[in-house]
Amino acid sequence: MHLLQFLRFSHTMNVPALGDSISEGTLTKWEAGIGDYVHVDQPIAIVETDKVTVDINSTHSGVIEKQHVNAGETIYVGKPLCDIDTEATAPSVPSGTIKSAKTPVVKSNEALEKSKADSESDKSAFTSKNVPSGGSTRVPMSRMRMTIADRLKRSQNNIVMLTTFNECDMSNILALQSQLNPIYKADGIKLGFVSAFMAASSRALMRMPVMNAYIDGDEIVYNNFVDISVAVATENGLLVPVIRNCVGKSWLQLQMELVDVAKRARENKLSLSEMAGGTFTISNGGVYGSLMSTPIVNPPQSSILGMHSITKRPVVREDAIVIRPIMNLALSYDHRLIDGKDAVSFLCAIKDIIESPGQLLVES
After folding, report:
1. Where, by residue number, does the polypeptide cross the bilayer (predicted)?
2. pLDDT of residue 87
3. Residue among 361, 331, 324, 327 nearest 349 (CA)
4. Is 339 among the catalytic positions?
C-alpha cells in the first residue's frame, strides 16, 4: 500500500496554521469527501477554533484518498489531515464551478451552527408529530461558545470588576454630525458615534496610561499605543476586529477605517490577525436599544466602555429644565489595577470630549 501510494504520488496534507496562538480546533464538517477531486486553494474542511471558524483549503490538486480526522474530532496544527492522490486526472466540469479562496475565510458562529444543523439532518428527520410537546432539547456547545463561557468565567474569577456610570449630553455632537455629513456625503462617508467614541477614548487613554495598561503576573504592563476592539455587525453574525494605532487620529480617519473594516467583514475578508489583540474595547449596546448595562472586561485588557441608546430626557441647564438627547455611559474596569478616582476621571474625560466635539476633527 505504501509503495502504491508512492508510485501514485500520494501527498499527505497536514493541518495548516490556524492563526496566532491557535494550536488546535474542531473539524466540524468535511466539504470534500473521499474520492472527490479537489483543486489547489479549494476549501475542503470547516474548522472551528477558540476565536473564529475558518475554511481549510487544499494545498494540492488531486483526489482525496484518506481522511485522517472525522467530523467532530479535534485537529492539531502540523498533524495529518488527509491524503491526496496528486496524479489523479481532473474530471471534466463546466468552468466557473470550482469554489476557491486564497486565504482562510472567516465564518460567523451562526454559519457554523447552520452547518451542524445540516449535518445532523442527514442522520434523522424530526417532525412536529414525533417530537413531544414541552420538555427540553439538549445540543452540544460549540468550541467558540465554550471558549466564551470559559473566558467570561475566568474574567469573573480573576478580575475585581467594578463599573462606573455617567450621562453624556449628545446635543453638540449631533449638531456637528448634521453639519458634516452632507459635506462628506459625496465621498460616501457618514460619520457615526462609535468612531467618535473611539477618537475620544484614544485621547483619554493617552492622558491616563493606567487605563490602557494590564496586569501580567506581578508586573504592570503599560501599552504605549492604543488598539481598540469594536463590534461590527454582518449578515452572518457579529465580528470584533481591532482598529490599530488610534492615537492622534481624527473622527473622520477612524470612521473611514471603521467603514473599511465593516465592508471587509461583510465580505468575509477579515483575517484572524485583525481580530486579535486590542488594548481597550468599546461595546455599543445602544444599536439594539440598550438603556444601561455593565460590560464585562475582556482580559488581558483592564477596561471596557459601554455605549447605550440616545433618549430625550429633561435635564437642568443654568437653573432651567430643558430636553436634551442623553446617552448613558458605563465603564467597567479591573479594580486591582485601576483606582475608582482614575476610572471616574477617565469616563468624565470621554464625556467632556464628546460634549465639546470640535477637538475630534483634528489630529491630536
Report:
1. none
2. 87
3. 331
4. yes
Q: Which residue out of 36, 39, 169, 335 is catalytically annotated?
A: 335
41 is catalytic: no
CA 343 from chain centre, in angstroms, equals: 25
CA distances from 316 to 169, 321, 330 (A): 11, 5, 21
User: What tens digit of pLDDT does each residue of 30-86 get?
Assistant: 999 999 999 999 999 998 887 677 889 999 999 999 999 999 899 999 999 999 998
Average pLDDT over residues 223-243: 82
Look-up of cell digits 460616501 = 188
Radius of gyration of the chain, Cα coordinates, nearest whole angstrom = 25
The catalytic position among 20, 118, 339, 352 is 339
In the chain, ranges of CATH 3.30.559.10 domains? 160-361
Q: Cis (ω within 30 of 0) for the bond into 300?
A: yes
Ranges of CATH 2.40.50.100 domains, the chain: 2-119
CATH class of 2-119: mainly beta
Q: Which CATH superfamily is domain 160-361 in?
A: Chloramphenicol acetyltransferase-like domain (3.30.559.10)
For the ranges 87-96, 109-118, 162-171, 200-209, the lowest mean pLDDT is seen at 109-118
